[in-house]
Amino acid sequence: MPIQYYIILSMVIFCIGIAGVLTRRNTIIIFMCIELMLNAVNLLLVAFSKMHYAASLNAPNHATVGSEGQLFVFFIMVVAAAEVSVGLAIIVMMFRNTHSVDANFLNRLKN
Amino acid sequence: MKTLLAIIVLLPFLGFLLNGLFRKHGTYKSVARLACTTILSSFIASAIVFGMLSQGTTAETVKYFDFINTDSIKIPFAFQIDHLSAMFLLIITGIGFLIHLYSSAYMKDEEPQHYARYFAYLNLFIFSMLLLVLGANYIIMFIGWEGVGLCSYLLIGFWFKNDNFNYAAKKAFIMNRIGDLGFLLAIFWLIARLGNANYADVFANVHNLSQTDITAITLLLFVGAMGKSAQIPLYTWLPDAMAGPTPVSALIHAATMVTAGIYMIARSNVLYSAAEFTQHIVVIVGLTTALFSATIAIKQNDIKKVLAYSTVSQLGYMFLGLGVGAYTGAVFHVMTHAFFKALLFLGAGSVIHAMHHEQDIRKMGGLKKYLPITHITFLLGCIAISGIPPFSGFFSKDEILAAAYEKNPVYWGLGVAGAAMTAFYMFRLYATTFLGKFRGTQDQEHHLHESPAAMTIPLIVLAVLSVIGGFVGVPEVLGGKHLLGEYLSTVIIPEPHHALAHNTEYMLMGISVAVATIAILFAVSHYSKKPQLEDATGLGKVLENKWYVDELYNTFIVNPLNALGGFFKNIVEKSGIDGFVNGIGRFVNYLSRQIRLVQSGQVGGYILMMVVSVVIILFIWIHDGEIYKFLVTKLF
Amino acid sequence: MIPVLLILFPLVSGLLSFFIKDEKTAKIWASFSSLATVVVALIAALSPADLSFDAAWLPTLGSRFSLGMDGMSKMLTLLTAISFPLVFFSTYKNSYTNSNSFYGLLLLTQAGLMGVFLSTDALLFYFFWELALIPVYFLCSIWGGEKRIAVTFKFFIYTFIGSLMMLAGIIYLYTQTTDASFALKSFYNLHLSISQQAVGFWLFFVAFAIKMPIFPFHTWQPDAYEQSPTAVTMILSGVMVKMGIYAVIRWLVPVFPAAVSEYGNLVIILSVIGMLYASLIAIRQDDVKRLIAYSSIAHIGLMCAAIFVKNNIGLEGTMIQMFNHGINVIGLWIVADAVEKQTGTRKISELGGLAQKAPTLAILLVVMALANIALPLTNAFIGEFLMFNGLFQYNMVIAAVAGVSIILAAVYTLNMIQRVFYGNTVSLTANAMESNGYVQTTLIILVIVVIALGIYPQPLLQLTKGVLLH
What's the pTM? Predict the structure, then answer.
C-alpha cells in the first residue's frame, strides 16, 4: 500500500486531534484529543519504518533498517502512558476542587 | 649659590609650616619672632646674593630636581638668579620684613590662634612670591603666580566670619584665574612651539617663532598680567581686596604681588620687544587704566579704597612704561612704588588702628597733632607719589613719561594728566585726613594715639626709602648716573639711547612738576578747611560708584552665566536628558502592560497561539527563499 | 602570580566576610584584608618588569584567563588597593545593618575592579566588568538613601545597556579575529575596514562613555552619587569611573585607530561641552554631593578629551590624572560625609560658619578643594597641565574653550567653601564639632599624598612612562 494513504490518514487524525483540543472545553476530551495526535504520529512512524525497511531489502545489512522509528513509537507510548497517569491525577484533583472538568476554569494563575 | 637660594626660599616656608601646624601652641611673641626672623634671614641671604651679583658673579640657573619629566616634555624645578630676580628678591624680603614687623603690632587684637594663622599665610605668601621671581621657567613662575593668588585669597578673607570679605576674596581669586588662563595658554603655546618653557631656551629661540606666535604669546601673557596686576578689564578685584588686614594690602596689593605682572613682562622683554602690536595694546590698556582708576580715586571716601585705586593707576603707569619699551623705567617704578605705596598703606593702617577700624575719611580730619610720626611719613609718601623732585616717585615716573613722549607725545600728555589727578586725590586724602578739624565722635577723639614702635619704625624706614630711593636712577640730563639701569643691563636689553634734546627733557619735567604742584595746592586749599565733604552729584556720583563697572559685570557676565547654569540644571538635565532616559523606561513599561493582556489565562487561547505559531514557522521554513528575496527587493 | 593574588585576596576575603556575624569583626576583617591587598599592589607597583599570568579558562570559546600588568595597570590596581582601606577607615564610625554583607559586597567590587584593570582577554574583561558592577547595584539599593530604588534602577539601565553594547562589540570583534580568540593581542592585530571599525567603535564607546561618564550619558551619576552610601560613592567616583577611562585607553583607541581618527574630534567636542555644561550646573548646585558629582563629570570630560587628542603628552596627563583624581575625589567625599554627619544636611544654603567649629576639617577641605581646582603644587595640577597641553597641541581653540572650565571650577569650589565653612554659624552648625579621628587621619594621609605628588610627581610619571598608544 502506498505511503500516501498512511500520511493522509494520520494527517486527518492529527487535525481531528488539534481541532478537538482547540474547540472542546472538557479536559477529558482534550486529553483524548492529545492522545489522538500522539497516535497519529505513531502511525506515521510505523508506516515510514516499514517503508524504509521495504525499500532497503536488497541492500546489505538491511536487518535493522527502520527500527529507530519503531523504537520511537515505544518511547511515545511510554511517555503517553506517563502523561495519562499524571494528567488524569491532575484532572481528578481539579474535579475535587471545582466540581468541574472545564478547561476554562483553569485561569487561576492569571494575575 | 644653590644652597643660598634654597635657604632664601625655604625659610619662609619653614615659618609657614611651624606657625601653621603649631598655631594653637604659640604665644604672640614666639609667633611674631619666628615669622619675622625667617623673613629677616631670608632678606640677609638675598642681600648677600644681590651683593655677589653686583660684584660680578654671573647670573646662573640652578636645577634642583625634575618637576615633570616624561618622554614628551621636560620641566626642571630650577631657579634662575640674575640681576632682575635679585632686585625683586630684595624688594620682596625687605618690604616683607618691614610689614611682618608692622603686623606683629597691628594684629595684636586677634586671638593667638588666628595671629599665628595670619603669619603663616604671610610667610606662605613670601615663599610663593620668591618662587615666582626665582623660577627659571614659566611653569615655576606659574606655580608662584597661583601661590600668591591663593595667599591673597586667604588673606583677603582672613576675617572669614564676614561674608562681604569672603566675597571679595573669592572675587580676587576668580578674576586672577581668568588672567591665569591666559598665562597658561601662553605656556601651552610656547611648549607647543618650542617644546619647553625655560627662559633661556625661549629667549634664545625667539627668532624661530613666527610673528603670529610671538604676538599671541605676548598677548596671552599680558592677559595673565592684567589679572594679577589689576588692569582693565580685570581690575575690579583689587579695590575689593582692601577687605583684608591693612598690612596685607600694603604687602600684597601694593608692593609685591600686583607687580608680578610687571615682573613677568620685564622678564619676557625679549619677547615683547619683538611684538609691536602687543606693545600697542599694553600701552593702551596701561594708559586707560591709569586714567580711569585715577578718576575713580578722586571721589572715594574710604582711605584704603583711594590708595587701592591709586595702586591700580600706578600699575597702569608701569604698563605704559613696559609698552613703550622702558622696561628699566617700569621696574624702577615698581621699586619706588613699593616704597611709597607700602608706606602710604602702612600709614593708613596706623590711622585705622588709631581710629579703631574706622576707614571713612569723612569721619577723620586734624589727625596731624595726634599722630605726628604717621603724619610726617604719610606726607612724605604723598609727595613721593605725586612726583615732586627730588623724591623717588619723580625719577621713576619721569623716566616712564620721557620714554612715552619719545614714542608718542599724546601718551605723554595723557600720562601727565594722570599724574595731575594722582597729585590731586593724594592730597585730597591727606588734607581731609590730617588737616582741618576732627570730625569723628568724641569717644574716638579721646582714644586717638600714636602707634607703637613696631609700627612706626617700618614707617620711618619706608619714608626714608621713599625720599632717597630715586637716586639710584637719576637721569643723565640731571647729571646723574642710572645705577639701576646699569645693574639690570644684563637682563633687559638696553633701550635705545634717549634721543630727546636736553631742553625738551627739561621742559617735560618742568611741565609735569608744575602740573602736579598746582594740583597739590588746589587740593590742599580746597579740602583742608572744609568741615564736611558734601554728597557727590552728577559725574561725581558716577565716579563714587566706580563708573558702575561692577554692576555692569554682574549684569552682563555673572547673571547670564548663573541663569545658564540654572537652565542647564533645571531644564536640560531634568526634562531633556533625564526625560529621554526615563522616557525609554516609561515606554518599555507601557509596552509590557499592553503585551501582558495577551496572557489571558485561557488555556485554549495559549494552544491556539501555539498552533498558529507552528503554522507560521512551517510556512516560513518552507518559503524562506522567497521571503528573503521579497524583503531584499521590496524593502531595502 | 602577583596579578592573580590581587584579584584573589579581595574575592576570597569578600566571600568569607558574608559569614562573619558581628559588625566589628566584619569591619576589622575588611580593613585588614584590604591592607593586605595594598601590600601586594605595592610589591607589584615596585617591581620593574611587566607582570603577567596566563591559564586556560574556556578553551572551547578560545578565551583564556590571562592577566597582564603594565605601568597603567600597576597604577590603577594600586589606586584600587589604596582607596578601599581609606574608605573603610574613614567610614569606620558609620554603622550599617548587615554590615558583613555590606563589606563583603564592597570587597567583591574590589575584586571585579582589579580584574578589569588586569585582564588582557576580552571575555574575562567583560566578566570582571560585570563583577564590579553587580555588587554596586545591591549596595545602592539596600543601603542607599530615600530614592534608592528609582536611582539604582536608572543606574542599572544605563550601565546595563552599556554592558550589553560592549558584549555585542566583543562578540563582533571575536567573530572577526583570525584565530577565534578573545585575547587583547588578537584584537590589536585585527584589520578592519572603516565601516567595521565604526560599528565596533560606537558599541564600545557608548559603554565606556556611560561608565566615565561623558555628556550626555551622565545623568545616572549625580543621582547615584547622591543616593548611595558614602563608602560606595567614594568607590564609584574614585575608582569605578576610571574603568571607563582605562577601557578607552586599552580597548578602544588601539583597536579602532581609523575610527578614532574619524570620530575623535566629535568625542573631544562632546567632552568639552560636557566640561562646561557640568561646571555651569555645579555652580547652581545646592547639594554638596551633587556639586562634587558634577565637578567630577567636568574633570572626567577633560581626561576623555585628552585621550582622543592622540598625542603622548595628553595621554601621560590622563594616566596620572586617573590616580590623582581618584585620591582627590575620595578626599572630597570624606569631607562631604563629615559635614553631613555633623550637621545632618547637605544643603549648602543651610550651612555656614563651620570653620569656627571645625577648623581642622576646614583646613583639610580647603587643601582638597584646591587640589580639585588644580592649583600648582597639588597633584591635580600636573595632570591637568599635561592634558591641557595635549589638547592645546591638538587644537588651540578647543583648549581655550575647555580652559574656561578652570575658571568655573574655581567659582563653584570657592562658593562651596565659602558658604559651608566661612561666614557666621547658623542653627544647624551651631553645635557642630570636629569630625572623629578616623576621618581626620584619613584626610591627613590624603593631603600628604596630594601635596607630595604635586611637588614630586616623578614616581607616577615613571610608572606610566612605557605605556603609550599602540
Answer: 0.86
